[in-house]
Design brief:
alpha/beta; Beta-Lactamase; Alpha-Beta Plaits; TIM Barrel; 3 domains; eight-stranded mixed β-barrel; 22 strands; 23% strand; elongated
């Protein structure tokens, strides 16, 4: 053998070794015989051993139908004489399917007038599965398996495209009522089971042509395509309400839920996706505002209310940034010594465009928008700073809203206010209403105990106007109970009001809990409260809410004068 032929042999072995160790499958087919003349080791994953491939045709290796399909494809590629890239799925003899990416190149050797087809196949099964998982995560909710918010918006746009020539479709927003209480009381795993069940029930309540999505949390949505009439929409909503209300079996117990539903219909209610989404959300808000467990269709007056709320929200944000909030202070008068025990801080909004705004007009908006947390923290801090300059035996009472309480930052806000102002913690009274304790009572009691450990006093406000008041008194030792002004107002001429006040003062006296009566406006009311051994009073008779600058003057008036003669204009 000559040196040249030896070199050529080594080169062939070298190239064969490289080809055989490539991770992708490399094959060469003779165009005339349709037989494999080359197959590297990687082809074993699909066709079996290399020695079983070389010298055989596709018809000897594959079922006839598949072999006919691939042979026809290969002949077309060779005839075209152009390189091609394609992707196809191949089912192996064991039943497993693989996805192959193929680069196929026709080769002509002129000296022999022979044509070949070089194919380089790469197994991209795992790559495609990973891409599909990413695509699923991008468009579907991982917990429930229904579409997510991203896919939902695409479906809304598609629905508008499909119906732009005419026809209607409906957008249904669904929000589970009080779902947070399920998570808080039974745990998030149970909450997840509820969400999974609700999603499955919604899928069963509508047919496949409609689209069900989970928008996040406990919010779901449905696109009803091609709705023929309002009656058809109502019929579907009836099924939705029915399936949602059925008891749900979870790992720990049976759970029942209700839902608030808002509906907007295109094109009557909106001509584009964003407007339809907004209007359905507005209708949902009205359903929740009306007490939940109900459905509301969008109406134009709802849009006006929505715009008013948006303006209020923007103004509230500006108010916090521009220091437009003010605290007014109303004295709390102790009847044992006829002196000022403290002041209740009452929030006012001095708006440049609205004037002095009562909290009854803006606090609900602050709670809905989540601004109550920031506003409440400011009130705590400002009230503590103001009280720090008062006599050491004069306390400060601050109202805490249910939404503020649920934010779970209350303990930190209180500690920060006390620390920044250097106010003794026992001088701070936090007034809460019974509504705070309606849901997840154990969590509420735990927070109250944390606040008590700081040293602040806890007051139950508006006692008797909520639910299960007596049960709450047994679960937590309140430092004071406030009798609602609705009972005080009728204490002189309504026997039932007098009986309620007498029952509250008697009960609290037995539990060693002082009582404060709100809304005292006449001398007769004051005298009755004295007779019923009420410990403390507040109201216009004794002092209107006034700016902090008036506190010193109020303190100067007590205890020197006769309290019964102090009717304040």
């Amino acid at each position: 053998m000559s040196k040249t032929s030896k070199d050529a042999g080594h080169t062939r072995i070298f190239l064969d070794t490289i080809i055989d160790n490539l991770p992708m499958m490399v094959t060469v087919i003779d165009a005339r015989s349709q037989q494999f003349v080359l197959a590297n080791k990687a082809t074993e994953t699909v066709f079996g051993k290399t020695c079983d491939v070389i010298g055989k045709s596709l018809h000897e290796l594959l079922p006839k139908a598949k072999a006919d399909e691939l042979s026809a494809r290969d002949r077309a590629i060779i005839k075209a004489g152009q390189k091609i890239e394609l992707e196809h799925t191949y089912t192996k003899s064991n039943g497993d399917s693989v996805i192959l990416s193929a680069k196929m190149t026709p080769i002509r050797i002129n000296s022999d007038d022979v044509e070949y087809l070089l194919s380089i196949h790469e197994d991209i099964t795992e790559k495609r599965l990973a891409e599909n998982r990413i695509l699923f995560m991008a468009h579907y909710d991982c917990l429930t398996g229904v579409g997510n918010r991203s896919l939902f918006r695409l479906k809304i746009k598609e629905a508008f495209e499909c119906h732009k020539e005419g026809g209607a479709f409906a957008l249904i927003y669904i929000d589970l009522d009080n779902f947070k209480s399920i998570n808080d009381s039974l745990g998030h795993p149970v909450g997840d089971q509820v969400l999974i069940s609700i999603a499955q029930r919604l899928l069963e309540a509508v047919n496949e042509r409609h689209h069900v999505a989970r928008l996040g949390g406990d919010e779901f949505a449905i696109i009803l395509k091609g709705v023929p009439s309002l009656e058809a929409i109502n019929s579907t909503i009836g099924r939705i309400i029915s399936v949602i209300s059925l008891p749900i079996d979870t790992s720990s117990r049976q759970v029942s839920v209700t839902a608030s539903i808002g509906v907007a219909v295109a094109p009557d209610d909106a001509s584009d996706a964003d407007a339809l989404l907004r209007n359905a959300d507005i209708a949902l808000y009205r359903a929740k505002k009306d007490g939940g467990n109900t459905c509301r269709f969008f109406e134009i007056d709802m849009l006006n209310d929505f715009q008013t709320r948006c303006t209020m929200e923007n103004d509230l944000r500006d108010a916090l940034d521009n220091n437009e909030f003010k605290l007014y202070y109303q004295p709390l008068i102790g009847l044992d010594r006829d002196r000022v025990n403290g002041f209740e801080a009452l929030l006012r909004w001095d708006s440049p465009s609205r004037g002095l705004v009562s909290p009854a007009d803006f606090i609900p908006h602050a709670e809905e928008t989540g601004l109550i947390g920031s506003i409440g923290a400011w009130v705590l801090k400002q009230a503590c700073f103001d009280a720090a300059s008062w006599p050491d035996d004069v306390g400060i009472a601050v109202n805490i809203s249910a939404a503020q309480f649920r934010s779970r930052s209350l303990v930190l806000d209180v500690a920060a206010a006390l620390g920044a102002s250097n106010l003794r913690s026992s001088r701070l009274q936090l007034e809460i209403t019974e509504s705070i304790m309606l849901y997840d009572t154990d969590s509420v009691i735990d927070t109250l105990r944390q606040l008590r450990s700081i040293g602040v006093k806890i007051v139950m406000d508006d006692f008797g106007t909520g639910y299960s008041s007596l049960a709450y008194l047994t679960r937590f030792a309140f430092d004071k109970v406030k009798i609602d002004q609705s009972f005080v107002r009728g204490i002189v001429d309504q026997s039932d009001c007098l009986a309620i006040v007498r029952a509250i003062t008697g009960l609290c006296s037995s539990l060693n809990i002082p009582t404060t009566a709100e809304g005292v406006e006449t001398d007769a009311q004051l005298q009755r409260l004295r007779n019923e051994r009420c410990a403390e009073v507040q109201g216009y008779l004794l002092g209107r809410p006034l700016p902090v600058e008036a506190v010193a003057a109020t303190l100067a008036r007590y205890p020197k004068d006769d309290i019964g003669a102090k009717a304040v204009a």
